UniProtKB/TrEMBL annotation:
Family assignment from sequence similarity: Belongs to the aspartokinase family.
EC number: 2.7.2.4
PANTHER family found in the cross-reference section: ASPARTATE KINASE (PTHR21499), ASPARTOKINASE (PTHR21499:SF3)
Start and end residues of each ACT domain: 275-351, 357-430
GO molecular function, one term: aspartate kinase activity
Protein name, per record: Aspartokinase
A single cellular component GO annotation: cytosol
Length: 430
């Protein structure tokens, strides 16, 4: 049997009972003949509590010390889990991100992995041990400072280790049974997806699906690491994310590949804000200057829409979306660039939501776009921005309209389950 990397989120190790339950699952994989590497998140809401504590001490903590503080949560989890495994009669060794060889750049709070050199992990496995690694963290290549990887960092750690160790699969354990056609907290009749391609999962993740983060899926696709998303609270099969559909055996037809659905799912995101640059001179170079100012502030944007220029004034408006947490930085960066660009004013709106329909079959099935907008219209949802790709349609609307819009679109495309409602074992989705 080969090497397996397992990742457990905060809801899976939220308390002592959860840690002991996870330890039993890990030991079971070891007994089945696998070499096992485990990546853990901080317990429950530990990271949020540490962030709140830091803000009470210092509203603007230094990046280096902030990272040093936040990595404590995962170190607690890994040590407790190693203790629980030893209690079950198996040897386990815990490693921080730096000890595991996770090398990053020097950007604190949202570092990117440059390389993974898992020498100590290999040694632990060769000695017959289970290796427990603290997720979400690494060490900078130049200054050797502790860094954190930002949101979804533990998932990315797990996939990066799986790639470096040439693992058979990376199992991501969470508090739902897999990837669903919509967030089961919003759509009770959401269906679990048996298999989804890397491309469709990337679109869902980029569109707000929280079960897997975009960076994690991107890394898995680059190194062709199959991901199995499943619940640590049940023994059910989860969702496979890979380049090729798995082969299943049936009594009637023998072996056949799992068929890809026309529509993979409906995702939503209420964590973004919209910035509108009003009265931009409609001439070459203006848009470039706006987005150069945003890029120089190291901000990522999502959707971009430019209105038709008013013939009488020669001015236009440009709107874009970005994370709410970056809203203030974006406004500050554009205000500084205002004299050079020459726009009239800025509008900021953080009460928006994004709804996205994703599916590789969309490009070969006429009528999908019409059905999508008809469903939104029937639900009384007004659309503010539209963005499309070959396998995705996204719209921005009022945040209050998002739950109803998601349910309406999910039903319109026949995605509602006729059987049991989706089970959410925890409360966070991570």
């Amino acid at each position: 049997m080969g090497l397996v990397v397992q990742k457990y989120g905060g809801s899976s190790v939220a308390d002592a009972e959860g840690i002991k339950r996870v330890a039993k699952r890990i030991v079971e994989a070891k007994k089945n003949g696998h070499q096992v590497v485990v990546v853990v998140s901080a317990m429950g809401d530990t990271t949020d509590e540490l962030i709140d504590l830091a803000e009470q001490v210092s509203p603007m903590p230094a990046g280096r010390e902030f990272d040093m503080l936040l990595t404590a949560g995962e170190r607690i989890s890994m040590a407790l889990l190693a203790m629980a495994i030893k209690k079950l009669g198996h040897e386990a060794q815990s490693f921080t991100g730096s000890q595991a060889g996770v090398i990053t750049d020097s950007v604190h709070n949202k570092a990117r992995i440059i390389d993974v050199t898992p020498g100590r992990i290999r040694t632990a496995l060769d000695e017959g041990n289970i290796a427990i690694v603290a997720g979400f963290q690494g060490v900078s290549q130049d200054k050797k400072d502790i860094t954190t990887l930002g949101r979804g960092g533990s998932d990315t750690t797990a996939v990066a280790l799986a790639a470096a160790l040439d693992a058979e699969v990376c199992e991501i354990y969470t508090d739902v049974d897999g990837v669903f056609t919509a967030d089961p907290r919003v759509v009770k009749k959401a269906q679990k997806i048996d298999w989804i391609s890397f491309e469709d999962m990337l679109e869902l993740a980029a569109s707000g699906s929280k079960v897997l983060l975009h960076r994690c899926v991107e890394y898995a696709r680059r190194y062709n690491i199959p991901i199995h998303v499943r619940s640590s609270f049940s023994g059910l099969q989860g969702t496979w994310v890979s380049s090729e559909p798995p082969v299943r055996k049936t009594q009637q037809q023998g072996e056949q590949k799992v068929e890809q659905a026309i529509i993979s799912g409906v995702a939503h995101d209420t964590s973004e804000a919209k910035v509108t640059v009003v009265g931009v001179p409609d001439k070459p170079g203006e848009a470039a200057a706006i987005f150069r100012a945003i890029a120089d502030a190291e901000l990522n944007i999502d959707m971009v829409v430019q209105n038709v220029s008013a013939a009488s004034t020669g001015l236009t408006d440009i709107s874009f979306t970005l994370p709410k947490t970056d809203g203030r930085k974006a406004i500050d960066a554009l205000e500084k660039a205002k004299p050079a660009i020459g726009f009239d004013s800025l509008r900021y709106d953080d009460q928006i939501g994004k709804i996205s329909l994703v599916g590789a079959g969309m490009k070969t099935n006429p009528g999908v776009t019409a059905s999508f907008f008809e469903a939104l219209s029937d639900a009384g949802v007004n659309i503010e921005l539209i963005s499309t790709s070959e396998i995705r349609i996204s719209v921005v609307t009022r945040a209050d309209d998002v739950p109803g819009a998601v349910r309406a679109v999910h039903t319109a495309f026949g995605l509602d389950s006729e059987s049991d409602e989706a089970v959410v074992y925890g409360g966070t989705g991570r």
